[in-house]
Structures
1.
Amino acid sequence: MATEQNEQAQDLGQEQADQQTAQTQAETEQIAVSVEDLQTQIKNLEESLKLEKARTANAVYEAQKSVERIQRDAEKHKETVIEKFAKELLDSVDNLERAIQAAGDTESALLEGVQLTLKSLLHTLEKFGVVEVDMHNGFNADLHQAVGIAPDAKAGEIGTVLQKGYTLSNRLLRPAMVLVGQ
């Protein structure tokens, strides 16, 4: 009976060993499958990461370009507004110069006030880049508009200035209207 119990114990031990071996093999296969699955997942995640990095870089680039475009548009708008405002102020400059010419040679406090106002307005315009067009170096079609012929002026020279011209930041704001010699 002891031998029989011994054999049963050995058979039981053998069955347990076989079960453990089978279980170990199943776990090993599961681990192998799991490692392969994990490697596949890692590759997929790395590809997704590369794609997202590319999208992020593209979005950053587009944002920078948008900011630059908005800044350029804002600068152009600012220049346009300043140009319109300066053109409107030139009418006041012309009117003040006409008032001074109409006063003639008579000195008065009113005339002095108009002269100081004109001087202050011209100084303010100069601060913002509005400068009078040069009239001393002869006729220049880019800066002057010939509206007639001055009989007493030499050919290519400016005879009479009917209206002063101005530039804004080296761009023509208003051409000078002049009479030119033949």
Note: The chain has a mean pLDDT of 87.
2.
Amino acid sequence: MAPSARTLLAQMAPDFPARHVGDLYTDTTEFMRISHGDVIVLADRHFLVLRDEAERRFGMEDPKFWVKRCRCLETGGRNILKLVFHESFPMTIGTMTVTCTRSPRKETRILDLVHGDDRFMQGETIYDTADNPVRILDIVPGKRLDEKIEALEMPHRDYFHDHFPEVLERFIEACQAIQWLHDRGEKHGDIRRDHLYVLRETGRYCWIDFDYTFDFQESPFGLDLFGLGNIIQFLVGMGQHTTQALTPSQRVIIDANDCSIMFPNRVVNLKKLFPYIPESLNNILLRFSLAAEVYYDTTAELIDDLSRARDALSQPTL
């Protein structure tokens, strides 16, 4: 007979309060039932559940009940366990509709593909007794890029001239990582600014969360490209600039065509707000605007334009 959670924790985690001890789970299908103090058993490893994970977006916490922060009882290390949760929903981009689907098995495939590549989060998959692919993820040793940008306390001009060139260089490397996936027929699937981390030791950027895929008939990798566009807008602007936050003088010069095709309240024609932004860089942002007539088809095209903009930034002004 398998030991109870109480017996197991008494042996392997005697520091854990007995009043919070829960149950053992070898089948993670009913993930809503699994909570703090429970133990998930995967092959010969045991994971003590500490809490549900949550994403903080738009100033609000969005709980993810299928994602558990855990301690491995064998190693004492911390891991994030992603349990199986299926969902599908449409996303509208201008006049186009994209169907997004959560696919745990796709994320498993990506984790195997990027093993040992620090441009991507690391982890492995172990199947539970119900054949659910449970992804055991390493904690990324770093901080979200958008949080680091938002924490800067300086005028935009100083940021753009003193910090942005290095940010752009690192972002081009991150785009090259996505191109590497695309060249192998894979998509990231959920490219957002909160899914890009800065590694503490190297400063390199690291992508997380690969469990979405999408059906975009107009462009097989199109949603990834629009995601990269959203991030570069944020990085150039040192944050998001919305029509609601414009000053009266700025509202006069901004119209609908200056805004994002994905988020019509976000200004992408940032040269109108910051005239010192070079045309070569601003033209990249405009490829993601409501007025755009041509979009990027490949990550390589975006990287080429970003590289030219980087080179222009390094040239002295007359």
Note: The first helix runs from residue 5 to 12.
3.
Amino acid sequence: MKLKPVRALMAAAILLTGTSAADAHIVAARLGDFYMGASHPLTDLQDVVLWIATGMLAGTLGASKGRWLIPVFPIGLLVGLSLAPVFATVSTQLADATMMLAIGMLLAAAAQVPTLVLCAIAFAVAVIRGAANGAELGPETDRLLFAAGLACVGYGAITLTMALTVLFKRNADSVTSWRAIAVRALGGWIAAIGLMMASLVLAS
């Protein structure tokens, strides 16, 4: 008889534990779409190269021009994500390659790009890559959480890359300094990657 209260308490504890585990699983599943949006671009080479190239281009032009990309780039990602269902069957590989080639050549030439043109380039890159990321989503994905994660990582990536480039070039005395040459050389490599990608796409 005395065991009944103990058994009742054990049963209640098991039920509470099961409920807590279920709630935790639901929360983890919901937040999983946010983390998927934040991590998905980091697993795609085209995202990594284009985002870094865009941030570097903004950084070489200085903080006064580059800071406009802080809101422009995440907004472009969200616009591209919203357009993903419309362009789900369209490949972005040629557009990605073209943007890599263009940005790489601008970096290699140390071109002084106007702020409006810089924002247009960054917005175009963000829309293209936002659509590419959104095209792979399944119907079970919470698009709002995915969009929040994508926008957050886009903001962080473009801001960090731009800031590091500004700091790296701050001590460059002239366009012939090794720091300036290193940035231009990296731009040449990015342009070469874009050219090879475009060639492969057109040849297929």
Note: Residues 3-203 form one domain.
4.
Amino acid sequence: MTDAPHNAPHAPVLLAEVIEALSPGPGDVVIDATFGAGGYTRAILATGAQVIGLDRDPTVQPHADAVAKDFPRQFQLIRTPFSGLAGAFAESGKAKLDGAVFDIGVSSMQLDQAERGFSFMRDGPLDMRMSDEGDTAADLVNGWDHGPLAHIFKLYGEERQSGRVATAILRRRVERPFTRTLDLAEVVEKALGGRRGAPIHPATRVFQALRIAVNDELGELERGLEAAEASLAPGGRLAVVTFHSLEDRIVKNFLTERTGNAPAGSRHAPIAIDPRKPSFTLQFKGAREAGDDERSINPRARSAKLRAAVRTEAPAWASTSGRAAA
């Protein structure tokens, strides 16, 4: 972690587009649901708006302290995953929520900290927790049976040889348990036959799957979106930046449903009329992506997608979270 937390090591992706989507200004209250190093937060605060930052990672505190020092009356940090957005907003004491932004996935700041265990390129404890609570990645690979391990490797990592990897892990852990990141990466690489000129490291998908499972990232995203829906005032703006198809699919489906644009059914079945009124309207169709200039400067921007919507006056829909983790 840098000695100067306000010089954020994690460059916020699609920053200009996010600020345009949120359109914050003096008197507005915006939740930065994934505070991180405070990149989005600082840009929002610079417009005169107030920001409630959320993060479950205790290591972001120095960055939050730096932001609070620069914006003492505009900013507060509440330690919670973004599924706790509604409770955090109530705790803040603010009367009206005008915007919410989500930046989904692991940050470069977390990947760079070997002791966090997110990276297969740096040796560290096999942890992967975004908070300091709950099971670690080591708990999963040393304790789960073949079926559940293969399932998450295929579902969350889209690893085609998920069964082969799970078999290799179970075979090796009989000799000794996994405790280090490079140890697991080596076993996965051998199970998949080495790199063989592959554009990405063979362990990439397995590490992604473990990270998502350890942190319940997809379930958190679903619950976070629903919490934002329940908390945003009419006219409030939602902006979500994703970096993977699994996450983007959840956001796309959520907004498709909540804007009343979900498919009505097949031509062989009666059309079902949904009595619920749309709780959001899209700001623009599809997803916006980073331009060539940003892509050349920031590698994370290459896979980033921004979707944005505006809250209507309709009531929030009933919770449907839990589907992503199935």
Note: The longest helix spans residues 217-231.
